[in-house]
Amino acid sequence: MITNVGLVTVWCLDQDSAKDFFTGTLGLEPRDDITLGEGGMRWVTVGAKDQPDLSLTLMVPGPPTMDAESGEQMKKLIAKGVLGAAPSTPTTAGPTTNACPPRASSSSRSRNAAPTASKPSSATTPAAGTASPSPPNGSTNPPTGATA
Fold first, then answer.
1. Cross-strand pairs, 114
2. Cβ atoms of residues 93 and 138 within 8 Å
3. In what order do the strands lie in the sheet with 55-59?
4. What is the spatial distance between Cα 102 and Cα 118, in angstroms, rounded to a whole number?
5. 34 CB burial (10 A radius; 0-12, 13-18, 19+)
6. Which residues touch 84 (CB under 8 Å, ≥6 apart)?
7. Which long-range contacts (CB under 8 A, 24 or more apart) does 130-133 make?
8. Which domains does the chain possess?
9. Max Cα separation, the chain?
C-alpha cells in the first residue's frame, strides 16, 4: 500500500526557466541543483516549504533517463502542451480544501443532459508530471517550455 509520495517528475524543456517559474512565480523553495558525474545528468528539485517530504524533480527528457528518440518525442509533446494537467493551489485563493471544483448546477443545464465534469479554467496549464497534487482552487501558468 502506498502511504506517501516523495518525488514527482515534472518534464520541462529548460530546467533553469522551470526552476525560476516554480521558485519565483509559485514560491516553492529550491532543494537540489547538482550535476551527477562529469558531463552527467542535472538533478534539479523544488518543493513547498510546508511539504519537506515531497519534491518535484524538473527533468528534460532524453538520455540518460530515456533513449534519444523517446526524449525528442516527449519534447514535442511538451512543446505542444498535450501531456496532461497538474493543477496547483495558490495560497492567494484562500483556505485550501480537498473539495472538487464546483460543477454546473442542475438549473444551468438541461434536465435531459448528462452531467459533465467541470472544465478547467483558462489558467490551467498542460503538464507532464507523473503525479498531481490535491484538487485545485485555482492554477497558474508556467513559462513556455516548462510544464507543471
1. none
2. yes
3. 7-11, 55-59, 42-47, 29-35
4. 7
5. exposed
6. 126, 127, 128, 129
7. 130/8, 130/9, 131/5, 131/8, 131/86, 132/85, 132/86, 132/87, 133/86, 133/87, 133/88, 133/89
8. 1-89+121-148 (3.10.180)
9. 64
For residue 32, the one-letter residue type is D
Most confident by average pLDDT, 47-56, 115-124, 136-145 = 47-56
pTM of the prediction? 0.58
Could you read off the pLDDT of 8-37 as tens digits, one per residue? 999 999 999 999 999 999 999 999 999 998
DSSP string, 67-113: -HHHHHHHHHHHHHT-S-B-----GGG-S--SPPPPPPPGGGS-TTS
Cell of 44: 534539479
